[in-house]
């Protein structure tokens, strides 16, 4: 089955729908028109540039260039994690915790999936490795950012409760347990909801794309199941590591709560 190519006028028509929505929100004074247009422009520019990069990368296909692109994706995701928190750790710790958590979880799950489960030759073949890493990094970034934001905000807001527990003889793990549980729940909830609703409420994007490109629905379903399980594992391990590292950073060696190590994002 051949793929139907899209012409520029068809994309322009789709852009016109977004522009019409922006006009409607402007007339209704919802103050969303500017954000919609900026987001649409960013989408078009970013995806066009990524398309050009991937065309070149697929042609070259060396491990060095795949690794450099993966590193750039990781560093950008780390910056996004730090920027999305209401209260972040001082001294670049938010960036370090988020980046390390995503590197350990998303990279290891991606390499395991490529080398053991999918098995392309070579194992880092860009056609498989870059889309898989992108999906894992994107979902792990969301989970880590949500969990760190919930953890730091709730510990800052409830510092009196935690300090009272410490004075009663609780360890820092016991005093902060419910806040770490709440942070883990916040980080994993989007992934759990996505797996619970897949196939009934919506068809996941990768599976839909494969079917549109002519792949058998049976094969597309197999890939989608593998991807969802990999995303759940990557997001779960990344969130777990981020919450553990950030929680430890909020207590000193004498098990005192150190909310002075938090700074409010501008």
Q: Can you describe this structure in just a few lines?
A:
The protein is 76% helix and 2% strand. It is mainly α.
Compressed to H and E, one letter per element, the order equals HHHEHHHHHHHE
Instruction: Kindly report the average pLDDT value.
Output: 92
Taking the alpha carbons of the first and last residues, their distance comes to 52 Å
The shape, in one word, is globular
Largest sheet report: 2 strands, antiparallel
How many helices does DSSP assign? Answer: 10
Helix content: over 70%
Strand content: under 5%
Strand order of the largest sheet: 1-2
Relevant terms:
266 residues, mainly alpha, two-stranded antiparallel ribbon, 10 helices, 76% helix
Description:
It contains ten helices and two strands; from the N terminus they run αααβαααααααβ. By secondary structure, the chain is mainly α. Strands 1-2 form a two-stranded antiparallel sheet. Helix 9 packs antiparallel against helix 10. The longest helix is centred in the last third of the chain and has 33 residues, at 217-249. The radius of gyration is 22 Å and the shape is globular. The N and C termini lie far apart (52 Å). The mean pLDDT is 92.
């Amino acid at each position: 089955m051949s793929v139907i190519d899209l012409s520029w006028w068809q994309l322009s028509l789709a852009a016109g729908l977004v522009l019409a929505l922006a006009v409607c929100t402007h007339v209704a004074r919802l103050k969303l028109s500017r954000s919609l247009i900026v987001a649409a422009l960013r989408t078009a520019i970013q995806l066009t540039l990524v398309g050009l990069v991937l065309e070149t990368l697929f042609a070259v296909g060396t491990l060095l260039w795949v690794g450099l692109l993966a590193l750039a994706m990781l560093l950008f995701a780390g910056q996004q994690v730090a920027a999305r928190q209401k209260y972040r750790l001082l001294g670049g710790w938010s960036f370090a915790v988020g980046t390390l958590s995503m590197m350990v979880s998303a990279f290891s799950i991606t390499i395991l999936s490529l080398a053991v489960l999918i098995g392309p030759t070579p194992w880092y073949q860009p056609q498989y490795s870059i889309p898989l890493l992108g999906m894992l990094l994107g979902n792990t970034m969301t989970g880590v950012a949500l969990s760190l934001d919930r953890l730091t905000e709730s510990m800052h807001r409830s510092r009196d409760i935690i300090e009272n527990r410490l004075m009663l003889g609780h360890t820092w793990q016991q005093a902060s347990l419910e806040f770490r549980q709440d942070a883990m729940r916040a980080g994993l909830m989007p992934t759990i909801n996505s797996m619970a609703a897949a196939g009934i409420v919506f068809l996941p994007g990768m599976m839909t794309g494969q079917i549109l490109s002519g792949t058998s629905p049976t094969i597309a379903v197999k890939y989608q199941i593998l991807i969802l399980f990999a995303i759940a594992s990557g997001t779960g391990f990344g969130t777990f590591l981020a919450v553990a590292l950030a929680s430890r950073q909020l207590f000193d060696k004498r098990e005192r709560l150190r909310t002075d190590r938090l700074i409010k994002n501008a």
